[in-house]
Amino acid sequence: MELIKVKNLVKTFQNGDKETHVLKGIDFSCGDGEFIAIMGRSGAGKSTFMYQISLLDEPTSGEIVVFDKNTHSMTSEEKTKFRLNKLGYVFQDYALLPDLTAVENVAVPLMMQGKSKREAYIEAKVALELVGLGHRFDNLPSQMSGGEQQRTSIARALAHKPRILFADEPTANLDNESSKTIMELFKQVHDSGQTIIMVTHEEEYSKLAKRVIRLDDGRIISDQRQ
Amino acid sequence: MPQFIRIGFFLALRQVRRASKWTTSLIIFVMTLTFLNLVVVSGILVGLIEGAVEANKTYYTSDIIISKLEKKDYIEQSPLVLNIIRSMPEAEEVSARYIESGRVEANYKSAAKEEEIDSAGGTFAGIDPVAEERLTGISRFVIEGEYLEPDDYDQVLVGAYLLKKYFPVESPGFSTLDNVEVGDKIRVTLGDITREVRVKGIVKSKVDELAYRVYFVDRQFRDLIGRSDYNVDEISVKIREGSDALDVKEALLRAGVGRYARVQTFEDAQPKFLKDIKATFALLGNMISSIGLAVASITIFIVIFINAITRRKFIGILKGIGISGRTIEVSYIFQSFFYAICGSAIGLALLYGFLQPYIAAHPINFPFSDGILVAPALGTTVKVAILVFTTIIAGYIPARMIVRKNTLDSILGRN
């Protein structure tokens, strides 16, 4: 089953009179249970591509169909609701909310899904324990290391059981050891059936993925299964 | 409870709880000042006039003032009227006064010519010193000398506005007496009668009616003006606490007092210009308060806007992970509400716990009144509601502006 289908995706940034074409007509599809690494040199358009297919940004033209729904016809609020229920995100800089503790950060999307605070906290704690942060429930992001923050971010992205997990250079700000821990986590969740689309520029970690897509100058230059 | 309110509250609570204590204190401080500006400025302006009105009531008219009918020289059947008043259970104290216009003169012995004599026109009042003291506590205004005793004869209290020493005003048609001290002899002329009396004390008050008068003991005054029928010109009635002045006035009219005298409550007796000034000052106060409110709204707008701008990334993250825009807006509304309520609560505590009682105990010394701080509960509640509403709007607008921005632009900090 195809979860995402992209046709002729174009993204152009306008800066005054100057136009920068970042994505120049991409066709792509992602099946259920895949682990895809999107690679490319800096400026190749890999993050921009991920933002379009993860409904965080609006493409300039082209068609994105997610779970058989054309995103072009979706309102901003519908996309927000869609992200809440179907997608999970791990950002390069963790993107945790600084006023919320680890458990609160993970619980907020669950509460938004309609769960009671108690239920959401229980599920958030389970998710945090799964990423090895059982001892950090009540810590604020500022009281945790980079690796712990990224693990919290992964717990938040997975706690509501998304159909697709998007990760944008999840190890870019981490030391080697923390990076390995994070990638091991990704492997584990993929092994349990989770679909993952990850942007990375590190060859070592791309090897964990089952499919590697390489971008250059806004175009897919290779799409290999491994 | 709707989801967006529940989570909006959850986010707001944590944001406030974990925000910088200094920033939170500063915002609440601004809100407190705004609240005080709203209530105190107009309250003092109204209080200026209210102070004068209160003083006029307390020290002159009391709750009910009964005066002679138009075209009559005095209150006819005064003893009967007084009996009716004294028989009413609501009447606590009564003071009847004889009032006549006349002239008062000083240095008439040393003046070589008639034109050199210091003279001033004034109102003469014959009072029962004991009843008057019980009703108005007039002795507190005797700033020099002593208050009258019931058996004083040829001794008077002189209002300070008749003395140049206290009221150095020279204007056409108005004159005051120079060099008059306690113990000096002055000459009073009432109609055809002229009498030399000794100044026993000087009365100074911001209530004009008290400070323009020359006071005699009623017994002597009655003889001087030939009022052997005991008909007086003015009766002030203080009613018991819990009684209503309007009810007492109506009861007096029903008892027939209206046939002999004009019966007014202290509010009826207020001059129209005083009521007009009161309304004007209230309007002026509201205008000044409105400017204060606008300034506060802009301040809160800027504070929340800066807060939202600096938290733009986190607003983007919230939207990114699926939190609806409405939920985020509600969280900012709750924060604004919190600041407004805290500011108002501290303001209310300061207002009713300190400012109002302090100013009541130490009135502001204005030339024409002892200003108090007027802050009725209903008016204050309305102002709290206005402040809260304005603050919520001032907090909502910037939050909405940021929430409407592109999610990814917010997360990445792009313009």
The run of helices and strands of chain A is: EEEHEEHEHHHEHEHEE
Distance between the termini of chain B: 36 Å
- Low-pLDDT runs of chain B: none
- What is the string of SSEs of chain B from the N terminus onward? HHEHEEHEEEEHEHEHEHHHEEHH
User: Which strands sit side by side, in order, in the main sheet of chain B?
Assistant: 2-3-8-5-7-6
Mean pLDDT figure of chain B: 89
Query: Helix count of chain B, per DSSP?
Result: 12
Determine the strand fraction of chain B and express it as a percent band.
15-25%
How many domains of chain A? The number is 1
Order of strands side by side in the largest beta sheet of chain A?
A: 6-7-8-3-9-10
Overall outline of chain A: globular
The total beta strand count of chain A reads 10
Proportion of beta-strand residues of chain A:
25-35%
Major beta-sheet overview of chain B: 6 strands, mixed, barrel
Could you say what the CATH architecture of chain A is? Answer: 3-Layer(aba) Sandwich
Biggest chain pair interface: A-B, 29 and 26 residues
SSE blueprint:
The complex is a heterodimer of chains A (226) and B (415).
Chain A: E1 2-15, E2 18-31, E3 35-39, H1 46-53, E4 61-66, E5 69-70, H2 76-86, E6 87-90, H3 102-112, H4 117-130, H5 146-159, E7 164-168, H6 176-191, E8 195-199, H7 203-206, E9 211-216, E10 219-225
Parallel strand pairs in A: 3-8, 3-9, 6-7, 7-8
Antiparallel strand pairs in A: 1-2, 1-4, 4-5, 9-10
Chain B: H1 3-17, H2 21-61, E1 64-68, H3 78-87, E2 91-106, E3 118-127, H4 129-136, E4 142-145, E5 155-159, E6 185-190, E7 193-203, H5 208-211, E8 213-217, H6 218-225, E9 234-239, H7 245-254, E10 261-265, H8 272-310, H9 312-320, H10 325-361, E11 364-365, E12 370-371, H11 377-403, H12 407-412
Parallel strand pairs in B: 3-8, 5-7
Antiparallel strand pairs in B: 1-9, 1-10, 2-3, 2-6, 2-9, 4-7, 5-8, 6-7, 11-12
Helix pairs in contact in B: 1-10, 2-8, 2-10, 2-11, 8-11, 10-11
